[in-house]
Amino acid sequence: MDSHHTKLSLMRGLEERTAWLFILPVLLGIIIFQLYPVVFSLYVSFTHWDLVTPPIWAGVENYVGLFTTDRAFYQVLTNTALYAVGTILPGMAIALIFATLLNQGIIGQAAFRAIYFVPVVVPTAAVAILWRWIYEPNYGILNDVLKVIGVPGPMWLTNTHYALLAVIIEAVWAGLGLNIVIYLAGLQTISREYYEAAQIDGANGFQQFFHITLPLISPTSFFLLVTGTISAIQVFDVPYVMTAGGPANATQMIVMYLYKTAFGLQRMGVAAAMGYVVFMLILLLTFVNFMFEKRWVFYEEAA
């Protein structure tokens, strides 16, 4: 009996060591490529480091400097906030309208869905370059259309009053397809019985939309709001390709400023501190979204 237990123990020990052998590469990858960079960047955020000389401990000086002496930091925060407000809610509203129309069972629904989704699969840089051509003041298609209706087209990407708006319009268009597909998936989970009952009670289309569709689609809206907020705060590629942050920092976002601070000015400590400010901002906004979730998100009870 003792020999049997000994064999079982040996077999279990061998299985455990084999399991750890398979897990070890993944575990090492997580430690080396995820955990270590996070810990090291946190340390760097409390130092002065230029990538050449050894880091010099600075305490909270980098964090304090961002909010006291760095005027550009407040501008990029404002730009990022305006970009987030201008892309998230309008993008969700437009996507919901299109998704509702596509959910009516129209002919060629699959083809329309694919057409709307095309900008999502096209490389972001390519889409941004396309929109730079659209906004070009002399031969761009947008100003040509405005000339036809007698409206003089502005210098979209070189005017501080229009550059951020131009970037926001492009971002809403580029993200529309994904939002439509997600909303359409949510709409198709709503039982037709609700609408049939509402029609019997005499509710028109608008009443059905506001009293049935909007409440039942609110979990999808909440998902898009949270993910859209995170994406908007971290935006980099579109404004970088279209305007490189100009003119006069009018379209420079916080992650672009972080990149230029780190690899342009080689102020790695300040850039790392900025990265953790971005992280805390995302964490705070996500917490606020979840805190207000119960006030407007309706979850249908399971039967």
Brief sketch in words of this structure:
With 303 residues, the protein is an all-alpha fold. It is 74% helix and 1% strand. A hairpin with a 7-residue loop joins strand 1 (47-48) and strand 2 (56-57).
Spatial gap, N to C terminus: 53 Å
CATH architecture assignment name of the largest domain: Orthogonal Bundle
Rg, Cα atoms, Å:
26 Å
Strand order of the largest sheet: 1-2
Main sheet attributes: strand count, strand direction, barrel closure: 2 strands, antiparallel
Give the amount of beta strand, in percent.
under 5%
CATH superfamily of the largest domain: MetI-like
Please count the beta strands (DSSP E, at least 2 residues each).
2
Structural class: mainly alpha
Output the CATH class name of the largest domain: Mainly Alpha
Our count of helices gives 14
Number of domains: 2
- Global shape: globular
Q: What is the fold-level CATH name, i.e. the topology of the largest domain?
A: MetI-like fold
Proportion in helices: over 70%
Unreliable runs = none
The quaternary organization reads as: single chain
Mean pLDDT: 90
Write the element-wise H/E pattern from the N-terminal end onward: HEEHHHHHHHHHHHHH
